Prior knowledge:
It is built from eleven helices and six strands. By secondary structure, it is mainly α. The strands form two sheets. It has a three-stranded antiparallel β-sheet with strand order 1-3-2. A three-stranded antiparallel β-sheet has the order 4-6-5. The protein is elongated, with a radius of gyration of 24 Å. Mean pLDDT is 83; it is low at 219-241.
Amino acid sequence: MTSDSTEEAGFIAPVAMEDDLAELFPGDRGVLDPEVRRTLALVLHRRFLLAERNRQEWRTLLDNQTVIESRLNDLYIRLVVDHEHGLAYKQQIRIEELDIPILLRDTPYTRSETLVLVHLRTVYERENVAGEAAPRIDIEDVEQTVLSYFTDADGDISRRQKAVRDAMRKLSNDGIVSEETTGRYRIGPLVEVVLSAEKLTELRDWLRETAAERLAGPDAEAVDDLHADDATEEALEDALS
Length: 241
């Protein structure tokens, strides 16, 4: 039987040993090229893969999108490629009829990170309307606004400032902002994906309502402070879900 007839019958002709991919580690049975493996691993490891920040991996992803999607689908994970914003991310597939092991655990942003996101998204939207495609912002501006959302339950001023700066570092790691010079950041278009206009409006309304309740009187403010962490965390998580 010829090799052609073997392939037509559903069999794959054996590959010569010298044509096998070199093992990257002892016992390696992977069949993907090293650069494709790395890109697949980055997609699994990071919240987002950004075209601007990961140019080589982005090109590898586009060139090998079908095989990478196949590997992810085998794990019940969906690949989302957003060409407009130049980013890719993954989603856990959930089907009620199937008993699917959940590999991806949703890790929502913390309260501090979400409050910073609200301000960044607001500035990004305002500056875009004014014609600025890549808005910049200083950490002092972020602190001035975001600290006004905090309560006495969040600790003293130094603790609150640390929470804001830690949030900015996390958002920088995710690619939502990039620090150009010390304390000055460029807000990237990813902020639109993470926090949609609808969610932004929802969070703004909630923050305004919360501020109004605190101004209602000392008793209301005392109760607000007592439950600030739990109530705010729940509201922000609901808004981002």
